[in-house]
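SAMPLE LOG
Freezer: B-3
Tube label: C17
Construct: single chain, 222 aa
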Amino acid sequence: MEKRTALVTGASRGIGKSIKESLLDEQIEVISPSRNELDLSVPESINNFLVNLSTPIDILVNNAGILKVGRYNELSSTDFRDILQVNVIAPFEIIVGVIESMKHRKFGRIVNISSIWGQISREGRSLYSSSKAALDALTKSFALEFGPYNVLINSVAPGYVDTELIKKHNTDSELAEIKKIIPLQRFAKQNEISNLVKFLCSEDNSYITGQIITIDGGYVCK
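STRUCTURE (predicted):
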């Protein structure tokens, strides 16, 4: 790769950390702000970060997100606003904040980390599914707007990945049952997600844009 600079949100652990490491392996400079530096739940924090961002961004990975689980009577409109702010509005604001320099240089790669739950759903995932479906719609629309400037934007939609997050929201017995449903009979490794993201962010990806790329071991095919 030509020398590039990437901005990756939510890179302190899990998939985000793996994405950061995969880009660093390609000699890409990676900006990965902490929550103190960039709090996606606070619009003023996003604005301040972008105003003070002096380095042109070539690659953007909107990885950070939140998950709220609950049935309709366990959730509130405040919960809905919170999850939309972090999972949809914040990525939108960051994209808008870096896109002009990408357009000017006629190069940009943007990857939004979505989820299979934007395509299918399950009980208790109403807010999360809605937010990821909205993020995927944003990806498709921006692909049309940015394509003429050689700025490619895609969503990567993982299924079950071997992270602490799935252990937090599923019991051991539930995880064992889920593995039986996945055609490959296992969860994704974090580097399997980050390797896909790395390709989409690279100059080798010259023609894929506006796509929702599912990486789930065949789960949604069942």
